């Protein structure tokens, strides 16, 4: 292995935002890729730091952002994470590799460089503050919910979220008020891994629905967590003791112990108590062994954890797990962005689909509301978002539209159906957004955004080439383009959704550009509708997904 001095220029290509994409390095005045062999989070951290993109939250390998072309400059990269540039890390000789472009390495960075809770009575309660590239600010409360708070509490080693008080419960902040809204599903390890939307958000100021707070359970002595599951309420049990997380082992783990765990984590009733299969067992230190609960205890630490010598364990103590009823989740799969896709439910530790028999807008409305995606604009059937696999959990769903969760609606018993996956149900919600070039000839046309079930135009006020560049990247049409000042065809009917877009050089994604709030009459003059020509050809991204057939204008 060799160490090379000097900082070679680096860039990220083919991602949906500036701080995510395939890693490319400039050597001898020519751009080339990096082989994904041994590619790690330490390597990704150096790339993010070099680009001023905050911390690394992903280090995908094997062409996740599509295969590059030209030379493969670096292979067997081995950063320790403290280097200031990728070219300072250990690697083979420039251009020496045993890879092809299907192995090209990628990086996903978070521009959020810090998170904290301030002005609370403990370190695990307070006003949520986020540091964006060195500047601390507060968040608007409009989209902050318990799932976002769960992720932040876990990230800060503060257990799980107990509440999300608003109304300046923890005082008024100073500095900027960020308009970003996080959309976590609750399983992320870091808020930087959650989807973020800024586009169309209403302005927020101190005292105006700002200064959202979180109150975490805190990871004190004998706190619990569940790991390896599909939600925070199922998985292998671990306990926090003496500053570290330890495994819980038992040879007679049953529903009495599982009930205590679910109650302590506020995850509802226990559904299943189990011993994880060998690939899912832990490898770290042991925190508790031989647990015996009556079932009514407030925490696992209050159960009897010392077996008398006269009653030796009946078998080999193994890792233990639980599935609580609070583990049920819903998600949308195979849509081009969040808030549209095939409906899937997580039940008893397994993801499954929903049959479209009787599926209508009232059912779709419950899903959209449950996911924080606004109202329903389409209840899709006949596997419009592709066929799922495995379980079909629900059939004959008949919601009124007022239910809090899809599983609260009348339906046939779990797993009972007369359907195949060609009947998988889907939804398109009002908060679903997409881009297109209307009247497009390849990568040129009128730029339109899909919102609230309708395609609409974007006004040219404040429009810059930074905005054009982000739109072209989102459309898979290169990394830049030109802004047309006049249209060669007349105005189409329909809304003009957005105005005063203010994308900057460091804005990560088209969807994170600040703009005026959503308004179907944003343009005063039809001539303000924007037309762009991108510098690339329309090619599918490296991780394609099905784009729905949206509601016609």
Number of helices: 5
Cα-based radius of gyration, to the nearest Å: 25 Å
Give helix % range.
Answer: under 10%
Kindly estimate the percentage of residues that lie in beta strands according to DSSP. 25-35%
Main sheet properties:
7 strands, mixed
Count of beta strands: 35
The overall average pLDDT, rounded, is 84
| Shape estimate | globular
Uncertain stretches of 5 or more adjacent residues: 1-5, 307-314, 539-553
> Alpha-carbon distance between the termini?
59 Å
Structural class category: mainly beta
Quick synopsis:
The protein has 553 residues and is mostly beta strands. It is built from 5 helices and 35 strands.
Question: Would you write up a description of this structure?
Answer:
It is a single chain. Strands 17, 18, 19, 20, 21, 22 and 23 form a seven-stranded mixed sheet that branches. It contains five helices and 35 strands. A hairpin with a 2-residue loop joins strand 3 (20-27) and strand 4. It has helices spanning 41-51, 146-155, 255-264, 361-370, 465-474; strands spanning 2-3, 10-13, 20-27, 30-34, 55-58, 72-74, 90-91, 106-110, 112-119, 125-132, 135-139, 161-163, 177-178, 181-182, 196-197, 213-216, 223-228, 234-241, 244-250, 270-274, 286-289, 318-319, 321-324, 329-333, 340-347, 350-354, 376-380, 391-394, 426-429, 434-438, 444-451, 454-458, 481-484, 496-498, 531-534. By secondary structure, the chain is mainly beta. It is globular and about 75 Å long.
């Amino acid at each position: 292995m060799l160490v090379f001095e000097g900082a070679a220029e680096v860039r990220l290509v083919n991602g949906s935002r500036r701080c995510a994409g395939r890693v490319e390095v400039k050597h001898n005045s020519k751009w080339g890729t990096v082989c994904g062999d041994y590619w790690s989070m330490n390597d990704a951290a150096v790339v993010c730091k070099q680009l001023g993109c905050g911390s690394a939250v992903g280090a995908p390998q094997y062409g996740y952002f599509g295969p590059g072309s030209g030379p493969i400059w670096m292979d067997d990269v081995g950063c320790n994470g403290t280097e200031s540039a990728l070219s300072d890390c250990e690697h083979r000789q420039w251009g020496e590799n045993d890879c092809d472009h299907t192995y090209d390495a990628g990086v996903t960075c978070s521009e959020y460089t810090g998170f904290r809770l301030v002005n609370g009575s403990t370190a695990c309660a307070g006003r949520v503050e986020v540091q964006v590239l060195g500047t601390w600010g507060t968040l608007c409360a409009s989209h902050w919910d318990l799932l976002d708070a769960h992720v932040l509490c876990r990230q800060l080693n503060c257990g799980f979220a107990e509440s999300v008080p608003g109304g300046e419960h923890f005082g008024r902040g100073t500095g900027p008020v960020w308009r970003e809204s996080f959309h976590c599903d609750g399983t992320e390890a870091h808020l930087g891994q959650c989807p973020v939307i800024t586009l169309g958000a209403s302005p927020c100021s101190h005292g105006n629905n700002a200064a959202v707070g979180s109150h975490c359970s805190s990871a004190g002595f004998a706190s619990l967590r569940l790991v390896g599951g599909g939600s925070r309420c199922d998985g292998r049990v671990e306990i926090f003791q003496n500053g570290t997380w330890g495994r819980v082992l038992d040879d007679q783990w049953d529903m009495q112990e599982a009930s205590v765990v679910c109650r302590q984590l506020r995850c509802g009733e226990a559904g299943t108590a189990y011993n994880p299969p060998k690939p899912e067992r832990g490898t770290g230190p042991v925190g508790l062994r031989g647990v015996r609960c009556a079932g009514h205890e407030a925490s696992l630490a209050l159960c009897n954890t010392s077996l008398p010598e006269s009653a030796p364990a009946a078998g080999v103590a193994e890792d233990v797990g639980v599935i609580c009823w609070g583990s049920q989740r819903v998600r949308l799969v195979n849509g081009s962005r969040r808030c549209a896709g095939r409906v899937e439910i997580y039940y008893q530790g397994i993801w499954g689909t929903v049959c479209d028999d009787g599926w209508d807008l009232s059912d779709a409305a419950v899903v959209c509301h449950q996911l924080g995606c606004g109202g329903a604009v389409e209840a899709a059937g006949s596997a419009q978002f592709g066929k799922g696999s495995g379980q079909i959990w629900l059939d004959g769903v008949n919601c009124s539209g007022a239910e809090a969760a899809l599983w609260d609606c009348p339906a046939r018993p779990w797993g009972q159906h007369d359907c195949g996956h060609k009947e998988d149900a889907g939804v398109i919600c009002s908060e679903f957004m997409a881009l297109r070039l209307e009247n497009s000839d390849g990568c040129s046309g009128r730029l339109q955004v899909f919102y609230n079930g309708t395609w609409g135009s974007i006004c040219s006020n404040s429009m810059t080439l930074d905005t054009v560049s982000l739109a072209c990247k989102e459309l898979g049409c290169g990394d830049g383009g030109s802004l047309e000042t006049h249209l060669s065809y007349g105005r189409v009917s329909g809304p003009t959704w957005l105005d005063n877009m203010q994308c900057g050089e460091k804005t990560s994604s088209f969807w994170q550009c600040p703009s005026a709030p959503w308004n179907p009459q944003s343009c005063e003059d039809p001539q303000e509708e924007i037309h762009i020509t991108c510098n690339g050809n329309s090619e599918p991204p490296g991780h394609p997904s099905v784009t729905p057939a949206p509601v016609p204008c």
